[in-house]
Amino acid sequence: MNETEKPSQRNSSMALERLRIIVDQLTAEGAEQVPTERELSETIGVGRRAVRRALEVLETEGKIWRRQGAGTFIGSEPAHPEKQILSLHENSNMLEVMEVRLQIEPVLARLAALRANAADIAAMRDVADRLGKAEDMDGRELWDSALHRAIARAAKNTLFLALFDVVDRVRQDAAWRHVREALRTNDAMTLYKSQHVDIIKAIESRDPISAEKAMRSHLLALQQRLLYQNATEVADVEGH
Fold it and tell me: How does pLDDT run across 72-110, given as a tens digit for each residue?
């Protein structure tokens, strides 16, 4: 044994080597689960700590996965869409969000024009009024999201609404909220208010083409401001 190598390190390496063989054998046999750490420790002849360390290596390699209280399983951990959704904001950005919104929300506005009832229209107007009276960032974010969701709900399509909610959840990242707030100049707020009115009017008039067009114009205005802000930030960085 190398003089600088501790027994625990040697045991972990040996455990890893043996565990690779065990997992390969279990895979060939069609097994789904790996024996417990205690059983593996006795089989291999090393301490449970060495087994645990070796299992960590195999887990990072995707050969096994573990669930607290349930045990260790062979193969990669099954996908958990709900976990992926919660971390989407870490792997996305506002420009990606706008690209997706431009594909979804104009269609939702068109469908809302075909399917919205009087209660839906009343809800949109009430939320739009609350948005207009909001006096701080939190209120503006809250009611702006509520207005777009009211339109999405009026489309009467469960799957579309679920997609809308996923995108809306991603855009609620705190850092992005502050960027959007910085873009809310007086001129921008006046434009957005006018565009919201146009969208609701088109939906109330049962004009799907105008509703879709009005929503797309609104989102394009938002996207343009984000693109300008992004380009300005890049220029500032390159100028230093």
Answer: 888 876 655 555 555 565 666 788 889 999 999 999 999
Find the angle CA(109)-CA(151)-CA(181) to the nearest 5 degrees: 105
The answer to whether the beta carbons of residues 29 and 61 sit under 8 Å apart is no
The tokens for 58 are: 């195999």
Question: Residue 23's closest CA among 13, 32, 10, 12?
Answer: 32
| Residue 117 DSSP code | -
Q: Return the number of other C-beta atoms located less than 10 Å from residue 84's C-beta.
A: 11
Q: What digits encode the pLDDT tens for the residues 192-240? A: 999 999 999 999 999 999 999 999 999 999 998 888 766 555 444 455 5
Say which DSSP state 79 is in. P
Nearest to 196 by CA among 209, 215, 183: 215
Cα–Cα distance for residue pair 228/234, rounded to 1 Å:
10
